[in-house]
Design a protein that fits this description.
By secondary structure, the protein is α/β, with parallel strands linked by helices. The chain folds into two domains: 265 residues, Aminopeptidase, CATH 3.40.630; 111 residues, Alpha-Beta Plaits (2-Layer Sandwich), CATH 3.30.70.360. The chain is 33% helix and 26% strand. It has nine helices and 16 strands. Strands 1-2-4-3-5-16-6-15 form an eight-stranded mixed sheet. A hairpin with a 3-residue loop joins strand 1 and strand 2. Helix 1 packs across helix 9 and helix 3 packs across helix 9. The longest helix is centred in the N-terminal third of the chain and has 21 residues. The two termini are 17 Å apart. The structure holds nickel (II) ion. The site of nickel (II) ion (NI) has 4 residues, from loops.
């Protein structure tokens, strides 16, 4: 049976699984029921070895005939603290929590892949590991803990994907090299001196200092980062004051920096500290900075990005070279340790209302996209020569 026919046959089950998970979302680091659900599903396969509690809250399922090649596929399973505003029968049953990023689809696809591999275990040539990862959305994330717990020990290569509502269903996108940015978080608290609005000479106005600092920070990208190094500085929150005629004591700026290179990232952090301290100091105030480095950037390995492109071509699925996205993804940790690559599976379909941006309260997945998600993994495993899906022909 061709790969796509196998995927079509299992699509109804994938949809059921995805809808079950969609109705029962849990936030990062608290995915107890989701974990139990996956564990229960894994118990149906006597020949699959299951390691429980990996890194705290993850699961590792492995099936194989030979130790190598050993390819891993990873899916995350956490939801978000967002109120589901969709009007669908499978909407979240948990108040204030929903799968608004498609991780329910990732997990459903990986379970279907496991079922498919298990049903074809006579065709295995090496080993396949299925990584069910908790807590992708919240720092420090689940990937690092799972790696520290030895999840990659016997693994040669690793692949992962994200359903992506901003690419239309039918499209596969990736690229060699940097594909997802490193998202850093910062808070700057300016401690000035409050006073009466009519007597600024007695105060150190943190609002004016904040305004100056905002402008200074915005020139980092244009003036202090090389033109070919991508970076974003966004201040998403400005908090100060609560009366029109009072100069407040403090002002707070909160935001994010997105980069692709470690040296650029560290350089921007240093400039932030210098700018904040100098700007505050010269106006008689002080600055307190909290700067948290996010996940490293996802840098695809060239050969494995090529495998993904090849898989799409072999399947006759439309492929486009991706542009790097300034989001974040802790899949980076895995491919900092092993060869591998990450790709996007388009799931945007306006007619199905599945083109809301990720983390939107009306986010939904075009479930048909799971056909491509599953087929791609099956084809990648074939190209990596760990399994041969085709039945040997009886005629030759
Ligand atoms: Ni996500």
């Amino acid at each position: 049976m061709e790969i796509q026919k196998i995927a079509e046959a299992i699509l109804p089950e994938m949809i059921d699984t995805r809808r079950y998970l969609h109705m029962h979302p849990e936030v990062s680091f608290h995915e107890k029921k989701t974990y139990q659900y996956i564990l229960e599903r894994l118990s149906h396969y006597p020949e699959v070895t299951v390691r429980e509690g990996v890194g705290g809250g993850g699961l590792l399922a492995t099936i194989g005939r030979a130790p190598h090649p050993h390819i891993a596929i990873r899916a995350d399973f956490d939801g978000l603290a967002i109120q589901d505003q969709k009007d669908v029968p499978y909407k979240s049953t948990v108040d204030g929590v929903m799968h608004a990023c498609g991780h329910d689809g990732h997990t459903s696809t990986l379970l279907a892949l496991l079922e498919t591999v298990n049903a074809n275990k006579d065709k295995l040539k090496g080993s396949i590991s299925f990584l069910f990862q908790f807590a992708e959305e919240v720092q420090p994330g689940g990937a690092r803990a799972m790696i520290a717990d030895g999840v990659l020990k016997d693994i040669d290569k690793i692949y992962g994907q994200h359903y992506w509502s901003q690419y239309r269903t039918g499209l596969i996108k990736t690229k060699p090299g940097p594909i997802i940015a490193s998202p850093d978080y910062f808070e700057i608290k300016i401690k000035g001196k409050g006073g009466h609005a009519a007597r600024p000479e007695d105060a150190a106005d943190p609002i004016v200092i904040a305004a100056e600092l905002i402008t200074n920070l915005q020139t980092i990208v244009s003036r202090q980062v090389a033109p070919m190094d991508n970076a974003v500085v966004t201040i998403g929150m400005v908090e100060a004051g609560n009366a029109f005629n009072v100069i407040p004591d403090t002002a707070k700026l909160t935001g994010t920096v997105r980069t692709f290179k470690q040296d650029v990232k560290e350089n921007i952090r240093d400039i932030f500290e210098k700018e904040a301290n100098l700007t505050a100091e010269k106006r008689g105030a002080s600055a307190e900075i909290y700067y948290q480095f996010g996940y490293p950037a996802v840098i695809n390995h060239e050969a494995e990005a090529g495998v993904i492109r090849q898989a799409a071509a072999d399947l006759g699925v439309e492929y486009e070279e991706a542009k790097p996205l300034m989001i974040g993804e802790d899949f980076s940790y895995y491919i900092n340790e092993r060869p591998g690559s990450f790709f996007f599976t388009g799931s945007g379909n306006h007619d199905k209302l599945s083109d809301f941006v990720h983390h939107h309260p009306k986010f939904d997945l075009d479930e048909e996209a799971m056909l491509n998600g599953l087929s791609m993994f099956m084809k990648i495993l074939e190209i990596e020569q760990v399994i041969e899906w085709k039945q040997p022909s009886l005629n030759n």
